[in-house]
UniProtKB/TrEMBL annotation:
PANTHER family attached to this UniProt entry: NA_CA-EXCHANGE PROTEIN, ISOFORM G, SODIUM/CALCIUM EXCHANGER
Top-level lineage group: Eukaryota
UniProt keyword annotations, A-Z: Ion transport, Membrane, Transmembrane, Transmembrane helix, Transport
Entry keyword Membrane: yes
Source lineage: Eukaryota, Viridiplantae, Streptophyta, Embryophyta, Tracheophyta
UniProt cross-references to Pfam families, sorted A to Z: Na_Ca_ex
Name under which the protein is recorded: Sodium/calcium exchanger membrane region domain-containing protein
Gene3D superfamilies assigned: NCX, central ion-binding region (1.20.1420.30)
Domain Sodium/calcium exchanger membrane region as annotated: residue spans: 9-143
Principal subcellular localisation of the protein: membrane
Amino acid sequence: MFAYCISCAGINSYVIAFTALAGGTSWPDLVASKIAAERQITADSAIANITCSNSVNIYVGIGIPWLIDTLYNFIAYNEPLRIQNAEGLGFSLLVFFCTSVGCIGVLVFRRLTLGAELGGPKLWAWVTCVYFMLLWLIFVVLSSLRVSGII
């Protein structure tokens, strides 16, 4: 019902879906990664949790509903097996891949220069945090613009 009310405001349903998916699944992952980073000597488990959980959340969170929809339409209405309403999916996956490369690049850079992926001098910790938030914002904005037909 909430998504229906938001869609009445003219926001594309795809934008609502991936924003809700990102917000709904990221907070528990953030807490799990923070706990893992605090309890381990290295940040390996926290980094692995972030990388894997975000990928799984996106691919499974979008893929399973489309699979169910496609199979339902095939069985109930004898429609061909194809993904419906997948505008912008390929573009969003490309942007996700590029931002992931940007994240991994920063982690490698931090390892080589600071000796650690997380923590370190407060200034660099904040710079990295802001950079990661900007990458997420770039993903959301570019994907939203694509499905809205602006780019």
